[in-house]
Amino acid sequence: MALVSRETKEPKQDRSRVTRQRLLEAAVACLAEHGWAGSTVSVVAERAGVSRGAAQHHFPTREDLFTAAVEYVAEERSAALRGLFPDGPAARPAVVGALVDLYTGNLFRAALQLWVAASNEEQLRPRVTELEARVGRESHRIAVELLGADESVPGVRETVQGLLDMARGLGLANILTDDAARRARVLAQWSRLLDTALDGPRDPDRP
Q1: Which of 24, 38, 108, 174 would disulfide-bridge 34, Cβ 3.0–4.6 Å?
Q2: d(Cα 145, Cα 166) in Å, to the nearest integer?
């Protein structure tokens, strides 16, 4: 009898995990496409192919759903970024490009909608603020590792943070128009600046 119970319980848990993931992915897509005002629980549930009741079983409130969705995708993107360079520090232009990509996809668009909503929603603001601080710390840590940056050197920490702030600005510029051409030139210049800031000025007498 216990065996039957386990066999029925495990598929049910699997279905629950799949439903939860579908809801999270649908919530992020809705935020990116329709903004906060157009992204209700009902809209997300319909996109995910589940009932509103099933959605509220996993996420009792709208704020629970959307903060969890952005957190989920942020963690997925961080893991994907680390996976791009499994051997550690890599060529700086490639690292800079990968970091900027964090701010030009659906994750950033969804997060931006959440920031706007949090500026007016008292219940949402502390949760989004905490989430963004955690994502920011993780992004900074990944950047330091991949760039091979030594933060004990004065100015290096600020340089890495400046890179992330610049990436966020490029992501904002990309919201309304495709900014790929200008972005490529900016990234090339930032890679050169990083070489100087992280390695020091090149000795003109060295070959």
Answers
A1: 38
A2: 18
- Read off the tokens for 58: 């996993």
Q: Does position 199 have pLDDT exceeding 90, yes or no?
A: no
Nearest to 170 by CA among 195, 187, 158, 156: 187
84 pLDDT higher than 80: no
User: pTM here?
Assistant: 0.75
70 within 8 A of 28, measured Cβ to Cβ: yes
CA distances from 85 to 7, 49, 79, 147 (A): 40, 35, 11, 11
